[in-house]
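Dear colleague,

Thank you for sharing your sequence with our group. We've completed the structure prediction you requested, and as agreed, I am returning the results in plain text so they can be pasted directly into your records. Please verify that the sequence below matches your submission; if there's any discrepancy, let me know and we will rerun it promptly.
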Amino acid sequence: MDTNFVSALGGGSGIDTTALVKQLVEVQKAPQQTRLDSKKETLDAQISAYGTLKSSLAEFQAMLEPLSDNDTFNARSVSFPETDVITPAALDADAQTGSYQIEVIEVAQSQALAVNTAVDDKNASLSVSGALTISLGTWTYDGVDNDNPLSFAENEAQTSLTLDITTDDSLQDIADKINDADSDVQASVLLVDGNYQLMISAPSGEDNALRISADDTGLSNMFAFNETLHANVTETQQANNAELKVNGLTVFRESNEIKDVIQGLEFTINKASPGDKFTFAITEEKDTAEDAIRGFVEAYNTFYETAKSLTGTATDAETNETSRGDLATDGSAKALLSSIRSIITSSVPGVSEFNALTNIGIRTQLDGTLEIVDSEFTAAMVDNFDEVASMFAPQTSSTSGYVDVSLGSYATKTVAGTYSGSITTAPSKGTVIGEIPVLPLDTASPGGDYTFSVKVDGVTSGELTLSGSFATADDLRTEMQSLINNDTTLKEAKAFVDVVIEPGGEFKLASREFGSISKVSMATAGAEFGTSTGLSTASVSTNGSDASGTINGDAAFGSGNVLLAKIDTDPYGLNFTVREGAPAGDFSFTYSKGFAGELSSLFDSFLSSTGVIQTREDSINSQLDGIDDDQTSLDRKMTVYSDRLTQQYLAMERIISSFQTTGDSISGLVDILPFTATS
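Please find the predicted structure tokens below.
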């Protein structure tokens, strides 16, 4: 039969040894358990407090974003009159302030061509084939009825479109090929009087008119619209530029979407209205910046009060009791708050004037919060608004008109300040120059080999053929540039050239890229082409060069027209764009993150995965893990201690029980001894 020794305890001695063991274990455990509980409670409170501090920091940083954006200080407003002539579309933050008067003389329109060939089935084969080429440029018309195209000047900014037409292609197929091509030219098939016709349209503007030619007679007779053949195509609408007067100055634009006449203002021309003038003004909108600054002060005070309650002590005026924040003894949290207060009261690096909050009427009060002195703040916003913007938002400047400084991808690591730089080599483009001045040319007289090909930035064009009559050298230059830049291979590689006429009259082909990758050479040149243009495989080519120089005393990395500072130096993260022809010499530049940028960078360091908050949280969590381990160890020790006491009291009860058994035996002997003696 099994014996329950625990329940048997106390049976012989009369002592409740179970309760006694429990009490002894609790007395032994109490000091250590109190220490663990107190430490765990403190660490849990600190973890919670750091969560509150982190959340408060993130909310404060979000309020800094508008102040880190230059657009906040470049906000504009426009007082636009009610009119159906133009419609305002957008007003950029940096729009040019001033008063303006606008008069719309003409609206822009696109050229539209209708192919007269009409078919009853738009999907039926047209049975024509060949290469159909559509170019964009400017038509010169006769002076009689202005509807007969005489000569065409190709738009150098546009590339021509060449389509491969097969005998199976229908009217709809040709329209689809035009629309699917990488071009602004559009086509549609219209149902007119029961038959289908092809309509081809170009982008608006007189420089975007269409010239259509083909290398096959049948295809040409049906679709051509050029100097020699346009009988089967009707120009239903001529290309035209928009014409408007801005403050009395006549301006022409290709589109009715006007984006670059008044800096920062976009508007749409709806109709022409000669003689109808209306005025409006673009002014600075300072309310946006003022609201952002006031929001910053309010956000800082909210954050500061939260942080102060976590890291400081407070005394109740009535009870005179002192309470401590959960991070009152945490050095890291106190240092964090001290760093923020230091920036609040310091000048902004990289800014020489109006570089501290006190300059614009923002003061630190005795309790550590900020206060706006309205009279001083209003005066600063009215009289020194640009300086206020420079204090808060990021700024870059350069003493050289040939070097532009901008923020790169790693600007968050850039240290604010004023630095020195130098230009050793200006960037250049690869070129090839002809040997003789270029003269007017007619390739038909005398005839000959006018084929050529060029190699641009390592890419060789297909064989090109110069053809036509060119009354001036500039006409020839335009044709050359068009031929080269419309080559399929070069277009795919985005390798383009500019053809210019040198002061001596020679042709120069220049790559549009800067740097050592920029190279132009003549790959092939027919005899008559070389004689007429001065360009041959023997023509002198000059490779482009990368910009070179130093940034803050260290050799800069040059690529094309861009210089980059040495990695991990203070100016690293800024980009320096060097203009062509920049003279060798020294310059200086300044970078300021602005007040908001400095604070935001500090917050980024606090909130990063390796920042002080994460480090402290990791440390506290590690200590909590240690407390869990200590608790397990303590519980194990107390279990062993309890088992030892239990065994000891069990042994005692056995001894007492043995004594009781012996006593009972002796008592029995004593009881029978008198009877034994009588006998």
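Summary note from our side: The first helix runs from residue 5 to 8.

Kind regards,
the structure core
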